[in-house]
């Protein structure tokens, strides 16, 4: 989290945030499934000004062979930010942050994916951030879940991602880039709504116990809203493909 930025009014006297939203309102979320012909499953997500493309490949043979598991499949995730995704050109080499987010997303998806259904194989998830605007790990997690479902990978539930946080001493839903940089706390959440199970929970910043509880509650509410958009993206794809046949 960055320090306070006095040039940005994060919350005005009417409780309206710097991008015009109310404290409990998410940014606009748009998801399209099945956008890459050469992937087994894919999705494109716009989460506010975040733009992320996800491709899923597999289940497929593991190389090298000794990395495979005779009892279960393995999930491999790569989160990467394109050099042009941020204001100052980013080094195309994977950063420590990208490696950490790849691991976090993998661990958030694993409870949803039925890996034991396909032992000795791997499912690869590639997430490419084309434009970043705060909350990319939640947006990438959300898109990856849709891409996995589009690939026909057996899943217990979709994982929806949405962050809560604190800015200008108020608990807010879906932290944008300005709020992330100048706010007080950011709490990304990954959630399986059908199973009512949290698979991702990270806190950057400081919250009181009561604020922490509030963030969890509104974050889960945000995930439930995102979940409906995920389901609609998959329905739109499969209904459209059914009509073409």
Automatic annotation (TrEMBL):
<comment type="similarity">
    <text>Belongs to the RNase PH family. Rrp41 subfamily.</text>
</comment>
<dbReference type="InterPro" id="IPR020568">
    <property type="entry name" value="Ribosomal_Su5_D2-typ_SF"/>
</dbReference>
<dbReference type="GO" id="GO:0000175">
    <property type="term" value="F:3'-5'-RNA exonuclease activity"/>
</dbReference>
<feature type="domain" description="Exoribonuclease phosphorolytic">
    <location>
        <begin position="157"/>
        <end position="221"/>
    </location>
</feature>
<dbReference type="InterPro" id="IPR027408">
    <property type="entry name" value="PNPase/RNase_PH_dom_sf"/>
</dbReference>
<dbReference type="GO" id="GO:0016075">
    <property type="term" value="P:rRNA catabolic process"/>
</dbReference>
<dbReference type="GO" id="GO:0010467">
    <property type="term" value="P:gene expression"/>
</dbReference>
<dbReference type="GO" id="GO:0000956">
    <property type="term" value="P:nuclear-transcribed mRNA catabolic process"/>
</dbReference>
<protein>
    <recommendedName>
        <fullName>Exosome complex component Rrp41</fullName>
        <ecNumber>3.1.13.-</ecNumber>
    </recommendedName>
</protein>
<comment type="function">
    <text>Catalytic component of the exosome, which is a complex involved in RNA degradation. Has 3'-&gt;5' exoribonuclease activity. Can also synthesize heteropolymeric RNA-tails.</text>
</comment>
<dbReference type="InterPro" id="IPR015847">
    <property type="entry name" value="ExoRNase_PH_dom2"/>
</dbReference>
<keyword id="KW-0378">Hydrolase</keyword>
<dbReference type="Pfam" id="PF01138">
    <property type="entry name" value="RNase_PH"/>
</dbReference>
<keyword id="KW-0540">Nuclease</keyword>
<keyword id="KW-0963">Cytoplasm</keyword>
<feature type="domain" description="Exoribonuclease phosphorolytic">
    <location>
        <begin position="25"/>
        <end position="154"/>
    </location>
</feature>
<keyword id="KW-0271">Exosome</keyword>
<dbReference type="InterPro" id="IPR001247">
    <property type="entry name" value="ExoRNase_PH_dom1"/>
</dbReference>
<dbReference type="GO" id="GO:0000177">
    <property type="term" value="C:cytoplasmic exosome (RNase complex)"/>
</dbReference>
<comment type="subunit">
    <text>Component of the archaeal exosome complex. Forms a hexameric ring-like arrangement composed of 3 Rrp41-Rrp42 heterodimers. The hexameric ring associates with a trimer of Rrp4 and/or Csl4 subunits.</text>
</comment>
<dbReference type="InterPro" id="IPR011807">
    <property type="entry name" value="Rrp41"/>
</dbReference>
<keyword id="KW-0269">Exonuclease</keyword>
<dbReference type="Pfam" id="PF03725">
    <property type="entry name" value="RNase_PH_C"/>
</dbReference>
<dbReference type="InterPro" id="IPR036345">
    <property type="entry name" value="ExoRNase_PH_dom2_sf"/>
</dbReference>
<dbReference type="InterPro" id="IPR050080">
    <property type="entry name" value="RNase_PH"/>
</dbReference>
<dbReference type="GO" id="GO:0003723">
    <property type="term" value="F:RNA binding"/>
</dbReference>
